[in-house]
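User: If only I could read backbone structure tokens as easily as an amino acid sequence. Those tokens are not coordinates but codes from a learned vocabulary of shapes. Could you go through the record with me and say what the backbone is doing? Here is the record:
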Amino acid sequence: MKQIYLLLGIIIIFQSCDNCEKEAYSGKLKVKVLTLDKAPVTDVYIHLYDEEYKSLYYYITDNEGTVDFGDLLQGSYLVYPERPMINGMVYQPSVRVQVINGKENAVEVFPENYVGNAEIVIKHDNGVDRTPWENLNIILLRAQEVGHSDDLNYYIENAMYKTKLDSTGKITLNKLPSDINYLMIAYTDENSLFKRIYSFSVNTGWDFYETIILDDDLTRII
């Protein structure tokens, strides 16, 4: 008789542990990627990381811009949509989410909100006053998308932004996607001299300011 009670006890313990495990994974997570107009952003890889930035899962958004990660352990996770493109602009958002047991946890990500502003002034190393460069061509590229080339046209063709400096030597970049490394190249009209002069990134919601000093060969002094 004692053996029967012991066997029943073991069965109950195993069943209880099995229920505990199911309850531990009772938190659900859905992620939706949308434009500011609430249009779905499709075919975007969504990566999920744990608190220690260990990669757990990744899926592609469906026709509604949604990924369903299903059952997860309660805890904090990092949601990382991989370089969603909206109107030709690439973004790099990331969102920290808290998954709670027994709840349908839903997160909406709007990549266009992950932007900052940059104001860069380029001056000529031509004396104490260091006057602004004029008529200098500037192009901006996403550094991750370009390699090294001796051909200026390669950079021009891949540029996401092009301008020619006026008398202020100022470049103003509003709503620039944040957390992306940008490469700035300067070149002249006269002899097609060009150089990589600067690399930078902006933080979400921040204004970034910088002054760059170039000599006659477009070598950065400061």
